[in-house]
Specification:
Strand order of the largest sheet of chain B: 1-2-4-3-5-6-11-12
Distance between the termini of chain B: 94 Å
Oligomer: heterodimer
Number of domains of chain A: 3
Number of domains of chain B: 3
Structural class of chain A: mainly alpha
Distance between the termini of chain A: 105 Å
Number of strands of chain A: 0
Strand content of chain A: under 5%
Shape of chain A: elongated
Largest sheet of chain A: none
Helix content of chain A: over 70%
CATH architecture of the largest domain in chain B: 3-Layer(aba) Sandwich
Strand content of chain B: 5-15%
Number of helices of chain A: 9
Largest interface: A-B, 60 and 57 residues
Largest sheet of chain B: 8 strands, mixed
CATH class of the largest domain in chain B: Alpha Beta
Radius of gyration of chain B: 27 Å
Chain lengths: 280, 422
């Protein structure tokens, strides 16, 4: 754990103690008011409060160990995200002053901070992954297109700017979706739901590409290239076979074609024979 | 207010729990995906095409099979299923409970099917004329002969539907009724991706034929996957992962996988003509299609026609079938829609058994044998019988001989003979 983080936890502990002290003072005031309002119950409540207060005092002494628990948790979290430098920076952003005010407020701020913390870390890991993917994707598109067309032409999926925009739009949709799942979902289902949403998103994204004119053009020219290569291979093989004075593939196919033609004629005759009534 | 320290402990614990639960979900997800991958590596052995049948004619690139019904096949309306030239026909009999064949048999039809084989190299020159005017016609004749009928009912699926429509136009006298299931007919209005990719400026089918001799089944398989690449790869895997413990789901999944990859080549001339004349030039709808030197004229389609479409079909979108009923001469046409895709029409639990019961009922309602189909009833006699309100064979069978003789002036002896033949 970094020195900054140690300091942060100490600050936070101090902040928490201060909030509790305020809380106790408020409770004392409250009890006094209660005494005025309901004298009959006062003694019972006072006794109860005394017991409670003693227990709190005892537990207060074990605060340090609770801080350790929190530190353990944070360390687990840190290990999990495996991004110590970014983690430290994000922790710096979370000011200890957030932990002031009443407990409900503090609790909600704490949960919000935890949410932001998790989200930011996931975003960072994901962004790194996406950047790498984008790099590979761009390179793949350039390589593929260079093989087919002049470099100055647009890519089959539009201009490089279109590609970039398309990719940025996809990333944005993805993060919106991730955040939505985080807010609405249960932690167990977050990854599951996000995966499914991502499939839907990717399907929609790919569908837009597949139905575009440039894609149809690209697919056509790609197929043309594959077929041209195959045809050239056949022609080369034919030349080779001819050079060995052996029948070429074309020669063999011509024989097959002739057999088929003959077969068709024979079966047409057979059908005509079938149509002649037997009893004639 | 609650104990503040307890609150602090609680909220800390809550944070730990969130991470622990997230990790738990993460591990569960990976385990499920691992299980799905394991299943894909070692798929279970699944059975398909389980309805008992008999091969009644064995040809070089097609067999004709007859499915075994429960009883009295001879009294049931005969129906010939004309399957597509793509993949295997057991998609129509994928598993008990989700089988078109089984539903049709249970609804009281005598079911036959043309089972196209994987064509050997020597059949790579087979033409559309050969498929329609030789193989389909030969199978229709076999069924007509077995059932002693002038005309039989035909149901064509996908490309088999297109070929059936062409056949029925060229041989209307042999077709009692025509059911077209997810059949590509009107390519002008087809909004699908296959149509777009097959546009002449992007695609030349002749080049495929020049390169391979046929249209390779693997190429078709790839094209269909490419229509929805994410769903057909990642989406499919995740769906298997979600249901890896559901035995029925897994079995159905692998039955579908088996069928999807069980592709076969389409002979070059047939493929080329299908793409050029139909996809690219829409000749069937424009009454310009020539098959075997004969014009395929939709005005010759005068039999009852049922068009069956899957509302979410992306392979043959509904738009490529919808206008067909208006373009034919038949006065008796019907359209049935189901909220499923192309394959869903065959295998979805949404269509079994209700939709197929409706289809069978329609076929039975339209299986009216004409009077002329009975030996020695000519046009004159048929006309007299119709004037006496005997419109078909069914009416003749139930008519009172003496009364009919009085009404028509035909001798009782002749009427008795006809009834015997009927």
């Amino acid at each position: 754990m970094t020195k900054e983080m140690e300091e942060y936890f100490d600050e936070m502990t101090k902040g928490l103690i201060s909030v509790w002290e305020d809380f106790y003072a408020q409770m004392d005031e409250h009890m006094e008011r209660m005494q005025e309002q309901n004298a009959d119950n006062y003694q019972k409540m006072l006794d109860a409060w005394k017991d409670h207060s003693q227990r709190i005092t005892a537990e207060k002494e074990s605060l340090e160990s609770d801080v350790h628990t929190f530190r353990d948790f944070t360390e687990t979290l840190q290990e999990w995200v495996n991004a110590s430098s970014e983690f430290g920076r994000i922790m710096d952003d979370l000011s200890p002053t957030d932990f002031s005010g009443d407990f409900d407020d503090m609790h909600s701020k704490y949960m919000e901070n935890l949410r932001v913390l998790l989200l930011k870390n996931l975003e960072l890991s994901w962004k790194k992954h996406m950047e790498k993917q984008k790099e590979l994707y761009d390179q793949w598109m350039v390589d593929m297109w260079t093989n087919l067309k002049d470099e100055d032409d647009e890519t089959p999926l539009g201009s490089p700017m279109d590609l970039q925009d398309n990719w940025i739009e996809f990333s944005k949709d993805f993060f919106d979706m991730w955040e939505k799942n985080f807010e609405k979902g249960e932690p167990e289902d977050m990854l599951h739901d996000t995966q499914r949403d991502m499939v839907r998103l990717a399907s929609k994204n790919i569908e837009n590409i597949l139905t575009s004119e440039p894609y149809a053009m690209f697919q056509g020219s790609y197929l043309d290239n594959v077929l041209d290569t195959k045809i050239t291979q056949k022609e080369l093989m034919d030349t080779y076979m001819e050079s060995l004075n052996l029948p070429s593939r074309n020669d063999i196919l011509e024989v097959y074609e002739a057999i088929h033609e003959l077969t068709s004629r024979v079966r047409k005759l057979e059908r005509k024979l079938d149509e002649i009534p037997v009893d004639v | 207010m609650d104990d503040p320290l307890a609150q602090y402990q609680e909220m800390t614990q809550e944070g730990i729990d969130i991470v622990a639960r997230f990790q738990k979900g993460l591990i569960k997800d990976f385990e499920e995906i691992d299980r799905a991958l394991e299943l894909l590596r070692s798929p279970p052995d699944v059975k398909v095409g389980q309805t008992p049948c008999e091969v009644i004619w064995e040809g070089d690139i097609a067999d004709l099979v007859r499915y075994e019904g429960k009883d009295d096949e001879e009294k049931k309306p005969p129906l010939l299923l004309v399957y597509a030239l793509i993949n295997e026909p057991y998609i129509l009999d994928l598993q008990p409970g989700r089988s078109v064949v089984e539903s049709l048999l249970n609804s009281g039809l005598d079911v036959y099917m043309i089972d196209w084989k994987k064509p050997e190299k020597k059949y790579q020159f087979e033409t559309m004329d050969g498929y329609v005017n030789h193989y389909i016609d030969l199978c229709v004749d076999k069924v007509r002969k077995i059932r002693n009928r002038e005309a039989i009912n035909i149901l064509g699926y996908c490309m088999g539907g297109t070929l059936s429509a062409i056949y029925a136009s060229l041989h209307p006298e042999k077709v009692q009724s025509l059911t077209l299931m997810a059949a590509g007919l009107d390519f002008e209005n087809d909004p699908g991706l296959l149509k777009k990719w097959a546009e002449p400026e992007y695609f030349d089918p002749e080049k495929v034929v020049e390169a391979f001799g046929t249209c390779p089944g693997d190429m078709l398989d790839f094209s269909y996957s490419a229509l929805s690449p994410v769903d057909n790869t990642v989406g499919k895997l995740l769906s298997l992962a979600d249901n890896a413990d559901d035995e029925k789901f897994v079995e159905m999944f692998f039955r579908m996988e088996k069928w999807i990859h069980d592709s076969k080549d389409i002979p070059g001339p047939t493929f080329s003509k299908f793409v050029k004349d139909l996809y690219q030039q829409n000749k069937l709808m424009d009454n310009k299609l020539m098959v075997g030197n004969e014009l395929v004229d939709l005005n010759d389609l005068n039999m009852p026609i049922l068009t069956l479409v899957g509302e979410y079909d992306t392979l043959v979108p509904p738009e490529s079938s919808l206008s067909f009923n208006d373009a034919v001469a038949s006065e008796k046409t019907e359209l049935m829609k189901a909220p499923v895709g192309h394959i869903g029409l065959s295998v979805s639990s949404k269509v079994h058994p209700d939709l197929w019961k409706d289809v069978a009922r329609w076929i039975k309602d339209n299986d009216i044998e004409s009077l002329e189909s009975i030996k020695w009833i000519g046009k004159k006699s048929a006309s007299k019988l119709r004037e006496a309100s005997v419109k078909d064979v069914k009416d003749l069978k139930s008519a009172d001989t003496e009364e009919l003789a009085k009404k028509t002036g035909i001798s009782e002896k002749r009427i008795k003979k006809w009834k015997e033949r009927a």
